[in-house]
Structure formats: structure tokens, C-alpha cells
Specification:
The structure is a single chain. The chain is mainly α. 61% of the residues lie in helices and 2% in strands. The protein has a 3-stranded antiparallel beta sheet with strand order 2-1-3. A hairpin with an 8-residue loop joins β4 and β5. It is globular. It starts with 8 loop residues before the first helix and ends with a helix.
């Protein structure tokens, strides 16, 4: 339920007062001619005064009292819930279901009360409205010879008067006025479409008049969109699309084609708005007024908008399952769902802020069967013929019905999340029937065994990222159903047989799934989707780190688990061993394919594009998460929390394994591309250097709570305050770090990880304060070139130490002089084994 309307009294009173004064002004000017005008005005005035002085204030008071009671009850319940949450023993999951149920009950009570008040109020207003109309009609009838009529000789209707008086009001009175106006106009709009030529096509004059009068209203006015849809059944709308997009129209002149194109785009917008999409440019108050009031509108043969919407969606599904030609419904025609998807695709391109509603995507309580969006997908699966773009739509989008559907989802991530997390409802040859998995790689296409999106998968990647990046993503299991479906579908695509699909003269072997550079054809044909993988997964680098090293999921089970991690997450992603292997296979897996998202070293835009590559984003996120988690463990240990050493060592192992797998896949891709040794770029090593040098200290947990001295010591020891970007740590001439074989790769990654761990320990120690006095005294006795403390007693940053100073630090850390030898020593000593195990696993994944 949206925000409540706080008051209607002032605007309503002003509107009626203005109308009353207008009538009285006319009456005064006509008193000498019309003896009974004063009686008419007096009767209306009494009716109006009762409404203003008694009826409206009484309903307003009841309305305000209901809101006050609701707010007090909800606030009390929320307070009780917070107390219960705080009293929940550590380690136990707090169950808030009973409290949320009570809050929902209060919402329902308020909605029920307001619906009743709205009904009574509308009845009272209608009676006064009718009195105003009858008074105006009586006056107009008496003074026809004195007051000119309109250009067409007609008197203004009661609805016209009401709309003019109250249509700009964002309360219930304005909503009622706008609805009555829409209901009156909708049949006239449909009648225009029935003005056809001898072949059944709407005349140019009719289309032009329709576009001018109703085009913008369909996209902007929920009242008119719903009233119009109630008058024009979905089947008739799809028949119009088939007729106006036929080849016949291309022979009717450019002007007619433009009229048809505008009409079809506006119709698509109207269908979206009628089914619950928020109109273009509508204010919050106006949108809330529509949502509050539509429960009291009779729509078609139904008691309210919701009941009508469920029936309309059913009719849309029925019409979509039919096939159409310009002659009407015919079995050999195109699927209705194809025309429907083109409707919404054209509307979404024209109106970027217009997005499909939850009812369209996920179904409606009053409808039967699957949602319209699900049926569009099912139809695409069952009838995958590659229909050309519909001529009449004329927009720059795609003839692909699914791309059009995805385009129209953009802007409603909550509903999109539910849709992408759902099951398709049909068996597409995979145990996981997840919608995301199907869309990523399992759609059948006419030209091969596996999917290649004709726009590279850009739109699918965009909406997956939107759906998994909401503020409550970690609190919603649907997020992880989508992530699992994305990884499952992508790795299925990499493993599918796509031989013969690569149309390139440079390919010598037509029976391989890879191009000459070792690039899998699935990634080759879907480069935009591959690129979006970085944005999708960078927020879940910590999940990948834990699961890549030790998968805790089971194939076929829910891909998430409740976990209270250091960041307060409610859910975390889990991977099955099979999916983990498909991700980490260094020569054929997911990470290997993402390596090809990076531009070639000789690309003129390399410096700006490389930092945004998929593996770069995931690697930097992993290193930053690693640093934050390890530092947090050190600080918690300093504050006396038990178990932090084990958590620290686990994190080193988890992130070390993830980064090693990424590095190995990246190096294998470089070798496949045949790059010269001094041109190979290591994404992981670049990320490690970047995070070590410019990691923002403000990201370190607890930084804001430190003393000014500690904060300044950390800031002075880092380069994060400088204007440096990730691209400065990337190089196309890495001769010094180039890895020509497995031993060089693992050794280099081990060194980088070890230095990062030491650097993190130093950060953590500096956060807990200067070193003890005896340590400072011992350091002061050293040769100045070997001293490793600042004048304030803080340890120098690892990057600022000379090799001699680093040797001093290593020796004393191992000897427990700083109290961190167990942390630094054990973890660093384990890193080579972690890296080598990752290498062995990546080879076993094949």
C-alpha cells in the first residue's frame, strides 16, 4: 500500500466553492429575466453546504483516525519486534514472521476502512455532483438565448463539469472525476478504430485523430489506459497489430506507415499501463491516488480494477496463443505473443521509464494459469521460428520476442527478480528449470544447437545485474536462484556443442567449440553477456571465494544458505561440486571464458576498457573483500573475540583459492591467444597490486571509530588519497612478471598473496594503536635503514618498506616480536599449497 492521502477537504471545498460562485454570478446577472433561478441555486447551495460543513469533515475525521490508529499499532508492533530481535541468542535465527503478519493485518484493516470511506464519500459527492449538473443544465436551458453554447451546439456534460472542477485534484475526488471522464472517452476512441476503408484498415484520418487525442493518454493516464483496455479486448488489439504491420501497409505510403507506427507504439504503452505499469511522468501523489481509488471503480463487468485485471490478463494469454495474419486469426499466421512482445518492445524503447508490472511478469491473484511473460517464454520455446521484425512497428529494437520482453522489464527490478528466479514450467533438457538458466543458454534457435543472442546478450545481462543488485539482495533467496541459474546456464552454454556456428574464414576446424584463439563459441557469440558477468558477480566475490575452495551446495538443492557472515548477510550463494568444477576448469570453464572479455594488448582503447573487464571487476572485488575480512578478523581478535585466527586462516585459503583459479584461467587464455610472454597481462596480479597500493582505508571495518591519530597514521601510509586508477596497475609489457609455465604462475601468485597478507596485518596493527613501548625502543636501536616504525610508533606500510626493512619485519613477525607471528607465519606458509591445490583442481575439472 502506498502513502496515504492525508487530506481532501481543502481542495474539494475550494472546487465546489468556485463552482457555486460561478453559478451564483450567472444567477445574479439573470435574476431580472429568470424568476426561478434563485430557487435552483438555493437548493444546490443547501446540498453543497451540507457536503462541505458536515459530510466531508465527518469522513475526513474517520479517515485521519484510521491512519492514526494504524500508525500507532504498526509502531508498537515494530518496537516489540526490535526488542525480540535484540533478545535472540547469538547464533540463532530470529523469526519475525508473527510480527510481520500483525503489521500486514494492520495494513489490511486500514485499507478496508479506507475503501469503505471512499465508497461512502463517492456516493455523497456524486449526489452533489448530480445536483450541480442538474442546476447547470436548468440554468443553461433557461438562458439559451443569453449564454452561447459550445461550437458543436452541445452543453457540457456532468462529467465534463466534474473533470474541469476536480480533475487536477490528486485525491479521491480527482480520481473519481478522471475515471468518469476516461469511461466516457474510451468508447469514442475505440469507435475511431472502427472507421475503416473497404479492406478493413483504419482510415488515415481515424488513425491521425486517435493518435492526437489518445496517444499520450495511453502512456500517461492510468484511468484512460484501463478504461480503453476494457473496451478493446486483447484479441482485437492483436488483430490490429497483424493488420497494421502487414506488407500491405508498406504499399500505403510513408505517411500512413508513420501513423501506424505511432499508433502501435502508443498501444503498447497503453497495454503496459492498463496491466499495472506506472505511467510515464506521473507524480507520486497522482499514482498513489490511482492505486487507492481503483478498488472502487467498476471496470467493464467487474466490481473493481483488480478483478478486471485478472480477467484481462487471462484474455491476453488466450489471444496470445492464437496465430494472426492481416486477415485475422489464422493457423498459419504469426503467434499472438510475438505481436504482443513487439507492442511492449516498441513502447519500452519509446518510453525508457516504462516497465512491465509484477502482474504481467509474475501473474495476478485473480487470473488463472501462468503469467503473460511466462507464456511469452513458453511460446518462444515451443515455436522458435525466427520471425522477421514486424514492419509496422518500425523501431530500432529486435524481432526477438524475448529481447523485447527483457527490454520492457528494465526499471522494475523487484518484479524482474521474482520472474528470473522462477521455474520455466517446462523441461528444456536440464535438471535446473530456472528461468535465468533457460534464458542464458537453453533457448532453441533455428540455426544451431545453442543460443547466440543477436545483440550479444546485453539486455539479459543488464536485467540480471539489476535484479541481483537491489538493497535487499542479500535478504532475498530469489537473488541466489538467479545467480545459480546464471552460472549454471553459462557453463551449460560453454559445454554445449556449437561446432559449425562460427562463420569465419580463419577457422580451420569446423568441428570444434572454440575459435583459433581458444575462445569458446558461446562466449564469442554472447560477448555482452560475458562482459556483464563482472558486474553481476563482483558483489558476490566473497561467496565465490568460499564455494570455489570448498563447495557446500548439492546439485538440485536450493543454491543458498543462511549465514551470519562478517558483513551481516542473511543468505550466501552455494555451489555444487559439479558447478564449481565447471566454473574453475582453467581451459574450458567459466573463468577461462571471462578472460576473453579483456581487449587485446594492441587495442587502442585498452587502457580504458581493461579495468572494466569481467575478470578485473571480480578480481578487484575479491581482493578488497579479502582485505576487509582479514582486517576485521584481526581487529576482533584484538578486542578479545574468540575464534578469529581460524576465521582469518580460512579467509586466506578461500580468497587465495579463488584468485589462483582466476589467474590460472587468465594465463591459459593468454597462452591460447598465442600472446608473446612480455605482452601477457595478469588480471589477478594487477588486482593485488592495485588493492595493496590504493585500497581505501575508509573501507576497513571500524575505521570511523578509530582515534584521529590511528586514522591519520593509516591515511599517511596509503596512496588512496591520490588520483590513481586501476589502469595504472595494468600493463601490456609485463616481461618481469610474465608466466611461461605453471611454476612461474603459481610462484608469482604466491608472492603477491603473501605480500598482501603481510600488508593486511600491518593495517590491522596500526588500527589497534602504536606498537608497545618496548617494541618502539627496540626499533630505535636499529640502523635507521632497518627501522620499521614511524615516529609515532606505527608500522610502516609494506609498500613503503625497503627490502631490508621487509626482511626485518618478516624475521620479527616470525619470532612473535609483534605478537602476530602465528597469524602472518601460518597464513603465508599455507599460500603456496593453496595455489598449487587450485592449479590441480582446475586441471581435474576437465
Amino acid at each position: 500500500m502506498g502513502p496515504q492521502i492525508e487530506s481532501w477537504l481543502g481542495q474539494a471545498a475550494s472546487a465546489y466553492a468556485h463552482e457555486s460562485l460561478d453559478i451564483q454570478a450567472q444567477a445574479i446577472s439573470l435574476q431580472g429575466i429568470l424568476s426561478d433561478i434563485s430557487t435552483q441555486v438555493s437548493n444546490y447551495g443547501e446540498t453543497y453546504q451540507t457536503l462541505v460543513d458536515t459530510t466531508i469533515p465527518d469522513y475526513q475525521q474517520q479517515w485521519d483516525d484510521a491512519i492514526t490508529t494504524h500508525d500507532e499499532n504498526v509502531e508498537a508492533t515494530e518496537a516489540e519486534m526490535e526488542i525480540a530481535r535484540q533478545n535472540t541468542p547469538e547464533g540463532e535465527t530470529f523469526d519475525d514472521s508473527s510480527f510481520l503478519a500483525e503489521i500486514e493485518r494492520q495494513h489490511d484493516l486500514l485499507e478496508e476502512t479506507q475503501d469503505d470511506l471512499a465508497l461512502y464519500y463517492n456516493q455523497a459527492v456524486t449526489s452533489v455532483d448530480e445536483a450541480a449538473g442538474s442546476t447547470a443544465s436548468a440554468i443553461a436551458g433557461l438562458i439559451d438565448g443569453f449564454v452561447p453554447r459550445g461550437e458543436n451546439g452541445s452543453l457540457p456534460s456532468r462529467t465534463d463539469i466534474s473533470l474541469a472542477m476536480f480533475g487536477g485534484n490528486d485525491g479521491l475526488l480527482g480520481a473519481q472525476s478522471q475515471w468518469e471522464s476516461a469511461v466516457e472517452d474510451a468508447p469514442e476512441a475505440v469507435e475511431l478504430l472502427n472507421q475503416t476503408d473497404e479492406y478493413g484498415y483504419p482510415t488515415p484520418e481515424a488513425l491521425q485523430e486517435f493518435n492526437e487525442l489518445y496517444g499520450e493518454r495511453l502512456a500517461n493516464d492510468p484511468y484512460f489506459a484501463a478504461a480503453f483496455a476494457a473496451e478493446l479486448p486483447p484479441q482485437q488489439a492483436l488483430e490490429l497489430a497483424a493488420k497494421l504491420s502487414s506488407h500491405t501497409v508498406t504499399n500505403m505510403g510513408v505517411e500512413y506507415q508513420d501513423l501506424a507506427e505511432n499508433f502501435l507504439t502508443d498501444m503498447g504503452a497503453g497495454m503496459m499501463v492498463a496491466t499495472g505499469s506506472r505511467p510515464v511522468g506521473i507524480s507520486d501523489d497522482a499514482w498513489n491516488a490511482w492505486q487507492q481509488a481503483n478498488g472502487s471503480f467498476e471496470v467493464g463487468e467487474h466490481d473493481d480494477y483488480d478483478a478486471w485485471l485478472g480477467s484481462y490478463l487471462d484474455d491476453m494469454n488466450t489471444a496470445g496463443a492464437m496465430h494472426y495474419t492481416e486477415m485475422g486469426v489464422e493457423e498459419h499466421g504469426r503467434p499472438g505473443f510475438h505481436f504482443l512482445s513487439q507492442y511492449i518492445g516498441a513502447a519500452a524503447e519509446e518510453h525508457e521509464s516504462l516497465a512491465l508490472s509484477d502482474a504481467f511478469l509474475n501473474g495476478h491473484p485473480d487470473s488463472s494459469g501462468s503469467s503473460v511473460a511466462h507464456n511469452i517464454v513458453t511460446n518462444d520455446y515451443e515455436d522458435s521460428y525466427n520471425y522477421p521484425a514486424i514492419n509496422g512497428f518500425g523501431f530500432d529494437g529486435s524481432s526477438d520476442p524475448i529481447i523485447n520482453l527483457l527490454s520492457a522489464m528494465d526499471g522494475n527490478p523487484e518484479a524482474t527478480r521474482t520472474f528470473l528466479a522462477s521455474d520455466t514450467g517446462f523441461d528444456f533438457g536440464n535438471e535446473n528449470q530456472n528461468m535465468t538458466s533457460y534464458l542464458v543458454s537453453h533457448r532453441p534457435v533455428p540455426w544451431g544447437e545453442n543460443l547466440r543472442w543477436n545483440e550479444g546478450g546485453a539486455q539479459l545481462g543488464l536485467i540480471i545485474d539489476e535484479a541481483t543488485s537491489m538493497d535487499d539482495a542479500r535478504q532475498n533467496p530469489e537473488t541466489f536462484e538467479i545467480l545459480d541459474g546464471f552460472l549454471d546456464g553459462y557453463t551449460d552454454g560453454l559445454q554445449a556443442n556449437q561446432s559449425g556456428l562460427l562463420q569465419s574464414e580463419s577457422v580451420s576446424n569446423w568441428f570444434t567449440n572454440k575459435d583459433e584463439n581458444g575462445q569458446d563459441l558461446f562466449g564469442y557469440y554472447n560477448p555482452e553477456l560475458r562482459h556483464w558477468a563482472g558486474s553481476i558477480l563482483e558483489e558476490y566475490a566473497s561467496d565465490l571465494a568460499r564455494e570455489v575452495r570448498t563447495p557446500t551446495g548439492t546439485e538440485g538443492a536450493s543454491p543458498y544458505t543462511q549465514r551470519s557472515g562478517y558483513d551481516g548477510s542473511d543468505y550466501s550463494l552455494t555451489l555444487s561440486p559439479e558447478l564449481r568444477d565447471a566454473i574453475t576448469d582453467s581451459e574450458n570453464g567459466f573463468f577461462h571464458d571471462l578472460s576473453y572479455d579483456e581487449p587485446a594488448p594492441d587495442d587502442p582503447n585498452w587502457a580504458t576498457e581493461a579495468p572494466n573487464s569481467a575478470l578485473s571487476k571480480i578480481s578487484v572485488a575479491a581482493v578488497e573483500d579479502m582485505r576487509a575480512e582479514l582486517t576485521d578478523a584481526r581487529i576482533r581478535d584484538y578486542n578479545g573475540e574468540d575464534g578469529q585466527l581460524g576465521r582469518y586462516e580460512d579467509a586466506v585459503g578461500d580468497y587465495g583459492a579463488l584468485l589462483s583459479h582466476i589467474e590460472l584461467a587468465d594465463e591459459a587464455a593468454d597462452v591460447s591467444r598465442g600472446q608473446a610472454t612480455d605482452q601477457r597481462n595478469s588480471t589477478v596480479r594487477s588486482a593485488l597490486d592495485f588493492a595493496t597500493d590504493v585500497f581505501p582505508v575508509s573501507r576497513i571495518p571500524g575505521f570511523d571509530d578509530l582515534s584521529d591519530t590511528a586514522q591519520n597514521a593509516l591515511k599517511s601510509a596509503t596512496k588512496s588519497g591520490q588520483e590513481m586508477g586501476y589502469d595504472e596497475w595494468l600493463s601490456t609489457s609485463n616481461a618481469a612478471n610474465a608466466a611461461e609455465d605453471h611454476e612461474d604462475v603459481t610462484e608469482t601468485v604466491s608472492i603477491e598473496l603473501s605480500e598482501l597478507v603481510r600488508d593486511i596485518n600491518i593495517d590491522a596493527q596500526n588500527m589497534t594503536g602504536p606498537q608497545p613501548e618496548h617494541i618502539q625502543e627496540s626499533d630505535a636501536q636499529r640502523d635507521p635503514n632497518l627501522q620499521i616504525l614511524t615516529e609515532d610508533g606505527y608500522i610502516l606500510r609494506w609498500e613503503d618498506m625497503t627490502e631490508d626493512q621487509r626482511t626485518t619485519y618478516r624475521n620479527h613477525a616470525q619470532d612473535f616480536v609483534f605478537g602476530d607471528g602465528e597469524w602472518t607465519g601460518n597464513s603465508v606458509n599455507d599460500i603456496p599449497q593453496i595455489v598449487n591445490e587450485a592449479y590441480d583442481e582446475s586441471k581435474r575439472s576437465k
